[in-house]
Automatic annotation (TrEMBL):
It comes from Lentzea aerocolonigenes (Lechevalieria aerocolonigenes). CDD domains: Tryp_SPc (cd00190). InterPro entries: Peptidase_S1_PA, Peptidase_S1_PA_chymotrypsin, Peptidase_S1A, Trypsin_dom, TRYPSIN_HIS, TRYPSIN_SER. The keyword Protease applies. This is Peptidase S1 domain-containing protein. One of its GO terms (molecular function) is serine-type endopeptidase activity. Pfam families: Trypsin (PF00089). Gene3D superfamilies: Trypsin-like serine proteases. Residues 25-249 form the Peptidase S1 domain.
Amino acid sequence: MRRLLVLVAAAMLVSTGTAAAGEQVIGGERASIEANPWAVYLTDSGGAQFCGGTIVAPSKVLTAAHCALGRSPRELRVVAGREDKQDRGSGVSVTPADIWIHKQYVSADEGEDVAVLTLKSPLPYAPLPIAELTDRALYQPGTPLRALGWGRTSENGKTSRFLMQATVPVLPDDYCVEAYPQFVKTDMFCAGYDGGKIDTCQGDSGGPIVAGGKLVGVTSWGEGCARRGKPGVYVRLSRYAKDLHPVVDALPTGVVGS
Ligand code: 4AZ
């Protein structure tokens, strides 16, 4: 999460000046895991964090397809209940039992950038519900959304040790198309400020962007981070509710319902 100058008055079309050298506040604000218990991160088997995710049911974690593609469950770990990556005494690190990737997924900027990890047993942390088709209001331009993650705190910097958060408004679809010719309005939304400065970044992918107690989007792609005129692009989750429900609502294999 990158946050240079918080001179942002209201919405997205307000241009904020240029930060003088040395004046930048790099790094979003800290967020607690207690207030955001559904926020998780993904690591490889060596413990290196590379993506985010969200607990959407007791044994289901939603992430980006590009975070899961080409990986086998055994080389993945879901770390839940841990705000500080160095605090190995908190939370749990579990290997998923199964990976589901949207059938139409090709690349993040073509859409369908969603995947669901099924865990062997339920996590002791509260899930966050996914936005539905009826949650259209959450995608209106100007709606303030809160993105969370352990990603980079500057475009070429290191990922964050602590969970960070930043608030970014939804931008009009036409703005996103202008910024990115390949932007697909039905499958994506973009969020941020015209002047850049506050954004998600590498390592935040797969993680949550939330509003109104719902998971509105999944951090997906963008050109660089926090650049002027290059907002972050997120999966428009309401569009995928139908595809996700059967996967998210299914009990983990081997668990017998009553
Ligand atoms: C990434 O590579 C990534 N500025 C995530 C978010 C954004 C760009 C890239 C948005 O994971």
